[in-house]
């Protein structure tokens, strides 16, 4: 039986860091739901290769409805971390020990939700300093899996390993 995966995303996400994991998850039989400020909004990736029509408003969802959370990179996580509703949503996933998948700049949202301390993680290089400063155990590897269920990767070139890890985590 497929799992339900929430994706928090807004404009200027890294196109392939959304489309590639989404395709891998759907191919494995999982349901992907996009979440932003308002259902029906159109958000566009920073490269302009992907446009998403948002499925649900952050005001209309609860982590209880989902089995896992995906946070694509790009400038999207930086924007979302300014909104307390998204921080609360992410923190509730972490508190419930549900799998969280974040790539590239995605961990910025986790830092602001204050859920990285003591967790093994990776990210794009420039966010690595922020992770270390927030108490994460930073590792420069293509994919890092923490015992909490947190799976992180660095950049689009790591997507094959990232996609494999997240699909296996939900198997």
Automatic annotation (TrEMBL):
The keyword Secreted does not apply. The keyword Ribonucleoprotein does not apply. Residues 3-168 form the DJ-1/PfpI domain. Keywords: Glutamine amidotransferase. It comes from the Bacteria. PANTHER family: DJ-1 PROTEIN, DJ-1_THIJ_PFPI FAMILY PROTEIN. Belongs to the peptidase C56 family. This is Type 1 glutamine amidotransferase domain-containing protein. The lineage of its organism: Bacteria, Bacillati, Bacillota, Bacilli, Lactobacillales.
């Amino acid at each position: 039986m497929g799992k339900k995966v929430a994706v928090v995303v807004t404009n200027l996400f890294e196109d392939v860091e959304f489309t590639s994991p989404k395709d891998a998850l759907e191919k494995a039989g999982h349901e992907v739901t996009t979440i932003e400020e308002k259902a029906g909004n159109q958000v566009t990736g920073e490269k302009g290769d992907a446009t998403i029509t948002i499925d649900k408003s952050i005001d209309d969802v609860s982590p209880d409805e989902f089995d896992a959370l995906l946070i694509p990179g790009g400038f999207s996580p930086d924007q979302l971390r300014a909104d307390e509703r998204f921080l609360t949503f992410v923190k509730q996933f972490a508190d419930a020990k549900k799998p969280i998948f974040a790539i590239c700049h995605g961990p910025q949202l986790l830092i602001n939700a204050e859920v990285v301390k003591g967790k093994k993680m990776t990210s794009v290089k420039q966010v690595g300093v922020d992770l270390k400063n927030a108490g994460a155990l930073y590792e420069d590897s293509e994919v890092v899996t923490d015992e909490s269920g947190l799976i992180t990767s660095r950049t689009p070139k790591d997507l094959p390993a990232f996609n494999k890890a997240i699909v296996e985590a939900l198997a």
